[in-house]
C-alpha cells in the first residue's frame, strides 16, 4: 500500500468480505451499502436488511469515533443498527449499536467526550482517552480488545 488510508481501506474491505461470506454461508441475505450510506450513515452492508457497520481486527483494539474528520457524527452515532467487531482474525461479535453507545457513555472509565476542545482532550492518543488529531475535527478513543470482549457473551462467532 502506498499510504495509510489505502491500507486501512483494504483491511476494512477484507473484514467486510469475511463478514459477508460468514452470513451468506448461513443462508442470510447480504447486500453492500452504497458509497453514500457507507460514508455518511456508517453502514457497510445489510444482513437480512439489518444495517451493519463492520470494524476490522487490529491487535491493539478498536478506535471508536464520536466525531469524524469532517466534524460530523462518527460511527458511534451513525445509522447502523448493529456493529460487528472482529477481535481476532477468525473471531467476531455483533452488538446493537445503540446499546453499545449507551454503555460507552455510562462507563465512568470512558464517558462522553469533552465538549470544550482542545483543553479537555488528551495530549497523546491512547487507551481510554478522548483525543483530537491536530488539524482535524475528529473525536476518537482507543478501546483495547480486552474491553470489547466484555460484550461477547453469546454473540461470539468463529470462522
Terminal residue distance? 27 Å
Strand order of the largest sheet: 1-2-3-5-6-8
Beta strands, count: 8
CATH class: Alpha Beta
Helical fraction: 25-40%
**How many helix segments?**
4
Characterize the biggest β-sheet: 6 strands, mixed
State the domain count: 1
Mean pLDDT: 85
Unreliable spans: none
| Percent of residues in beta strands | 15-25%
Query: How many whole angstroms does the radius of gyration measure?
Result: 16 Å
Shape: globular
Decide which structural class fits the backbone: alpha+beta
In the CATH hierarchy, the third-tier topology is known as Trna Endonuclease, Chain: A, domain 1
CATH architecture title: 3-Layer(aba) Sandwich
Encode the helix/strand succession as letters. HEHEEEEEHEHE
Short description, anyone?
This protein has 159 residues and is an alpha+beta fold. The protein has helices spanning 4-25, 35-41, 97-106, 145-148; strands at residues 30-32, 45-47, 50-55, 62-67, 82-86, 91-96, 139-143, 156-158.
Characterization of the model:
By secondary structure, the chain is of the alpha+beta class. The protein has a single domain, classed as Trna Endonuclease, Chain: A, domain 1 (3-Layer(aba) Sandwich), CATH 3.40.1350. Helices cover 27% and strands 23% of the residues. The protein contains 4 helices and 8 strands. It has helices spanning 4-25, 35-41, 97-106, 145-148, and strands at 30-32, 45-47, 50-55, 62-67, 82-86, 91-96, 139-143, 156-158. A 6-stranded mixed beta sheet has the order 1-2-3-5-6-8. A two-stranded antiparallel ribbon has the order 4-7.
